[in-house]
Every structure is written in structure tokens, then in C-alpha cells.
Amino acid sequence: MAALKLKKSFEMRGLGVLIAAIVLAIVFSIANSNFLSPYNLLITVRMASELGIIAAGVTLLMVAGEFDLSVGSTYALCPMVTAILYSNFNVPIIFAVMVGLMLALVLGFINGFITTKAGIPSFITTLGTMLIYRALVLVIAGGMPIKIRSEALISDVIGGTIGDLFPVAIIWFLFFIGISYYILEHTAFGNKIRATGGNKEAAIAAGINTTRVKIITFMFVSFLAAFAGYVQCFRLGSVAPLNGRGFELQAIAASVIGGTSLFGGVGTIIGTALGVLITGMIKNGIVLLGVSVYWQNGFLGSILIAAVIINVFISKRRR
Amino acid sequence: MNMQNKVSVDNLVYMEGISKYFGEVMALDDVYFAIKPCEIVGLVGDNGAGKSTLIKILSGLYPPTKGVIYFDGKKIHFSSPRDAINAGIETTHQDLALVDDLEIHRNIFMGREPKRLLAGFIPYLNKQEMIREAEKALGNIGIHLGSVEDIVKNLSGGEKQSVSIGRATYFKAKLVIMDEPTAAMSLKETKKILELMVRLKETGSTVIFISHNIHHVFSIADRLAILSRGKKIADLKISETTEEEVSTIIMNN
Prior knowledge:
The complex is a heterodimer.
Chain A: H1 2-31, H2 38-63, H3 71-89, H4 93-118, H5 122-141, E1 146-147, H6 153-159, E2 161-162, E3 166-167, H7 168-186, H8 188-198, H9 200-205, H10 210-236, E4 238-239, H11 247-257, H12 269-289, H13 296-318
Antiparallel strand pairs in A: 1-4, 2-3
Helix pairs in contact in A: 1-12, 1-13, 2-7, 2-8, 2-10, 2-11, 2-12, 3-4, 3-5, 3-10, 4-5, 4-10, 6-10, 7-8, 8-10, 11-12, 11-13, 12-13
Chain B: E1 13-22, E2 25-35, E3 40-44, H1 51-58, E4 66-71, E5 74-76, H2 81-87, E6 89-92, H3 104-108, E7 115-118, E8 122-125, H4 127-140, H5 157-170, E9 175-179, H6 187-202, E10 206-210, H7 214-220, E11 223-228, E12 231-237, H8 243-251
Parallel strand pairs in B: 3-10, 3-11, 6-9, 9-10
Antiparallel strand pairs in B: 1-2, 1-4, 4-5, 7-8, 11-12
Helix pairs in contact in B: 4-5
């Protein structure tokens, strides 16, 4: 009986965000019949893709009990390094991208290493590195956007379109959502992530190296943030030094709307994917509704608060 | 105190001159503690006597400030619980046992999750095996919970302890340490756990049983050690002492 009730409330928790997504879609499609047109849906998902790639990693990290506020800066820094190597130093694009992705792993390692070894909250560590990584972007770019137009295959593979219409970004979004889902639900490492964030002391007593788990997860998040940055820069053909500002909080918001706990141990990738789609629909729907875009974050904020209230309500009833 | 034999083939565990300080606070003072294979040793004493600290050292959670540990004939140095688990020491801790938001089977196998390969190379969590073996682990101790796929948060205190004990006893460890395993349990559950410890001994494991309940210790242990304010003040064979004597020793310190 208790087990049945429990299962139900779990489904409800996932169901809440699904219902929210459907309700939003209905409201927007009533307000503007173009909302559900295939082309508009494609744009909505494409707009959500870059954030979605980051949010998948952010969810894993939050389940492990940590935050990463530096993702927005990493999103700009790694493509910027690539753009400079490619444009100013004639490094072949494929190597320039590989250097950038390796840099991402280093940036993530720094976040994880400082957080675990110094024992300070990752909120602080990554608030600091957010500012530092952003400063590096501005310094190396001299504050200016840098072009990265390349005819190389890699630019189409990461940020192009299939045919004239279908953005590859959507495939990468689904791919990284899939990878993150697989890691969290179907690997031993995923179980260690959940144990580490759920009860660190118990995880350590069970022989889990929680420091290692956290550092690897920090590196994974940074990698995804950089990759999302490449998706954008190859789509636009340039990198601007202020790219990705605000992504750190939007990624956390999408994750939390999808049911991820701020206290670690709880969260699902499917929920986050839906949370990301909701943020995408808000951005797109507001434009279609003819509402000023200045309202965009206001709507997002309201939905975030409502989602958390509902989650708290559900978990209270569960006891 | 120092009259005990040095590490010998007789002892599974030999803790020699163990001291532990937390800053200025002394938790253990020059403790010698030997355990023979296949015996049940009770570890008793008042709150704050140092029982939990002693077993946290033995299970790799704390390094001792001073002292040496021999296990299974070898001098060992545990730098983490992982080392102790690999050496064959399983522990049910009183305070840091389980992850509330994790399902029962995921708790039992946390840290050593069974894997299989998908398409020959993709590592994949073997959930079927985890669920089946978790049921077996709980069945072994005579406890049946609704479903091992429920999260631990919704279990009663006694049920949580059962899961913790199920985990500690599943892996056929050489040494099983139980820190107050029956504190939250009903009489019926307690009886099952006491019987379980006897069965562990019969199947070749050694058990350290920490309890406030001297009567429980007397009902199954071969020997008991009494700690008081960080010192070991007595080490007695159960057959050569009485509950009254032990109570008196604890009270008078």
C-alpha cells in the first residue's frame, strides 16, 4: 500500500513538469496558431538545445550535491580560444576545437579540485571561476567578437543544418540528454553520483571516493558547456565575449523546474529535458504572443517558483 | 593490558596501542584489542566511551593518532573505508548508514554495483541482479520489505537497520562490525538479528557487536570488552563473568 502510494507520487513529480509543458503548449497554441507549426516547434527546440546540453550536465552535478556557476563563462571561453587559434594562428580548426574541449576538462577539474580539496561550497568556487573565466575571455579577445568561419566538416557536424532546415543542434541536444540519462540511471557511476549527493558520509562509509565522483562530474559539465558553445559559434560563425551570460542560472532553473533538488541526491534527466523545453517555449511563445521580450525572464521566474512549490508540496505529502 | 600476545596467527584483528585525538579531545587512549577468528566479541560501555571511534578506525573512516592495526596476519593502514572493505571488513554504522533518496537495492550495492556489458562493450548497471540479490540479502536475515525498489526514506528505523545489516552481511566478509544494530528494532526483529550473528559465526565470519544492552551481548557473545572514557578497562570471557559483574564495572567507572 505504502509502496503503491510512493510510486504514484513519484510519477506525479515527473508528471507535474510534463503537465506544465503541455499546458504551456496549449496556451501558446490557442494564442497563436503558428505555435504548433512544425517549423516553429523546430525553432523552439533549437533555441532550447544549447541550454539543454548544459542543463543535462548541471543536473548530474546538482544530483552529486554541487553547483557550477561557471558554465556560462566556459561556454564562451573555449570557443573563443578555438577562434583565436584558428583565425590568428592558423591552427587547423579540428585541432583548435580539440584544444578548446581539453581546456574545458581542465576548467572543470579546477572547479572540482578547489571545491573538494579546499572544502568550500561549489557555489563560491564556481562564482569565482565564473568571473575569472569570463575575464579571460575578455582579455584574450580584447573585448571584441571573433569570426570563426570555416568550411571544414567539423563546423557542419557541430553547428550546421541537415538539409536546409533541421539544425544539428537538436541532435546534439538529444544525444547529450541520452548520454546523461544513461550515466545517471544505468551506470555504476550514476549510482555513485546519487549516493554522493544524497548522503556524502554514507557514500564514503560504503567505500565511494566522493572526491573523485565530484571532480569527474565537474569535468563532464564543463565539457558539455564548451560543446554547447561550439554549437552556437559554428551556427553563427563568430564568438562574442559575453556569450552565455545568464546560462548558469537558466540551466539551474531548467533543472529545478524538472524536479532536481537543490540539496543533492534527487533529480532526473527526463525532468530536466522537459524543464529546458518549458524555458524554450516561454522564450518563443512570448514573441508569438506579441508580449515584450522584457517579460521573458519574468515568466521563467514565476514558473520556477511555482514548480518548486509544487515539488515541496508533493514531497511533504509523501511522508 | 600489554600482556596479550603480539600479532599471531590466532588473531584476526589485533589493535595495538590505539589512541585517537580530535584536536585536544582524547577519544581513545592506548587501547589494545584482539579478536580471534570466528568469535563474537561484544563491545560495551557508556555513551562517549569510545566504542564508535574504535570501530570507525577499524573500518577506515578515521586514521588512528597513534597505534598499529594488524588484520588477518598483516599490518594494515586503511586510508579510506574502501581499503577496509577490500580487506574484508563490513560495518553497519549507527549514524551514517544509508542514502535516504536511494532505492533499497541501490543502497545495498552502492560502491560496488554489479555491471554487465551491453553489445559487448557498453558498461551497464545490472539492475535485475541488484534487485534479485538485494532480496536475497534481506531474505538471508529473515526480513522481507514490500519492494526493494522503494526508496529508503519511507522505511521505519528498524527496517533501515535491516537494510544496513543486509548489506554488511551479504558480501561474506571476514569481519562484520555491528554498531548498535538493534537500537531501533522491535523485539521480534532483534531476535532475528541476534540469531543472524550466531549464524555468521557458524559460517566463518567474525563479529564485533556493539550494544548498550548487556543482556543481548551475553546471549550470543564469546567475549566482551568494556570501554570507559577512551580506555579499555576489561576484557572478559562470557563464560567467566556475569551480567551483574559487567554492569558493576561499567557503573563504577
